[in-house]
Amino acid sequence: MLTMRFLRLIEGRGILFLAVLAALAIFVSVGNLLVPPGSPFHVSTGAVVLLGKYLCYAMLAIALDLAWGYCGILSLGHGAFFALGGYAMGMYLMRQIGTRGVYAHPILPDFMVFLNWTELPVAWWGFQSFPYAMLMVLLVPGLLAFVFGWLAFRSRVTGVYLSIITQALTYALFLAFFRNDMGFGGNNGLTDFKDILGFNVQAQGTRVTLFLITCLMLALTFILARFVVASTYGKVLIAIRDAESRTRFLGYRVEHHKLVVFTLSAMIAGVAGALYVPQVGIINPSEFSPTNSIEAVVWVAFGGRGTLVGAALGAFVVNYLKTIFTTGWLAVYWLFALGGLFVLVTLAMPRGLIGLWEDIRLRLKRRPPAEAPAELHP
Questions:
Q1: How many domains are there within the chain?
Q2: DSSP tag of 156
Q3: Does residue 348 belong to any structural domain of this protein?
């Protein structure tokens, strides 16, 4: 009974997505740890890190799709929530370095010693504890989204105006975190991590474990998002997206619904950022760049907004293309390719890859069967 309810909740597309994700987790972990390097089935540690980064981006895309695809909140600032979660994890990892740093200070990170700081800032208190750091991963992006959303939605700021404000928020944080006196590493950010929960972050086993944890968190994020959008609350979100004024006239507190989904989306983005940092080994203010938030919108639009699976697929495909176009002589053409992709989606694929696939399937089903050739009579 529970199994059938779960399958109905996830739907066919979601089941396929989870199956592919499970297969990817098994193939990558076995290929990296058990298959010898000379084998064509060996997965290098670099590939594990790259795929783990893609999975984190897929989580960010699902978070954005939850707000934009199902509630119509086009946020150009989700990169800020992603970066804040990453900084919370980075602060925990920096506190674990201790005397193994360049200046061997037992408490202060190296950049603080270099800048002649004499004591740990209040913002860093408690980050030597992993549970506290994980709480901040959720609380900081969630609290910022809650305060911002409460002010914006209460004032009924919508559409392009809301998008511009979210982008301004991201840019303000981008500039603030570049300052050395903020106490977050300035333009260099946080890096040179040693271990996480006592395990060496550079070790092969640790990297595979982080990859598997990211796979699990992506699956749980997808299931949570499906639960939200399939519920009565999710139906109200869709109503708000399609006809906000009518939904308000029916007596629903539109501002409350939008605030909840926006805050939840920000918290998911923060978790994605926290998983991203130990795998790539650095977090700096460039993660707050408005360009990153705009790219996330392209991921969702390319994959198909309002589908969840399409958002994750778009994140994988676009970032794979980015990996190709930012390597070697193609690097100078990446922004042109990204812009062209956005134009292509807007004009020819308004429903993204998922919508295109559904249209193809529908046309194949409607195609009449071929007529049998007439018999020839002598």
A1: 1
A2: T
A3: no
Strands (E), 136-274: 190-191, 195-196, 199-200
Q: What are the DSSP E strand ranges found in the chain?
A: 190-191, 195-196, 199-200, 282-283
State the distance between the two ends of the chain, measured CA to CA, in whole angstroms: 63
The 10s digit of each residue's pLDDT in 235-270 is 999 999 999 999 999 999 999 999 999 999 999 999
Distance CA 96, CA 149 (A): 34
Can you read off the two tokens belonging to residue 281? 């080994």
Q: Are 79 and 288 within 8 A, CB to CB?
A: yes
Q: Is residue 334 part of a domain?
A: no
Q: Is 132 exposed, middle or buried (0-12, 13-18, 19+ CB in 10 A)?
A: middle
Helix (H, G, I), strand (E, B) or coil at 191: strand
Q: Collapse the DSSP code of 200 into the 3-class scheme (helix H, G, I; strand E, B; otherwise coil) and give the result.
A: strand
Tens-place pLDDT, residues 36-60: 998 999 999 999 999 999 999 999 9
User: Can you tell me the distance from the alpha carbon of 39 to that of 288, in angstroms, rounded to the nearest whole number?
Assistant: 40
Residue 224 included in any domain: yes
What span, in angstroms and rounded, lies between the C-alpha atoms of 364 and 113?
A: 66
* Signed CA dihedral, 258, 263, 268, 273: sign only: positive
Domain that holds residue 98: 11-36+43-289
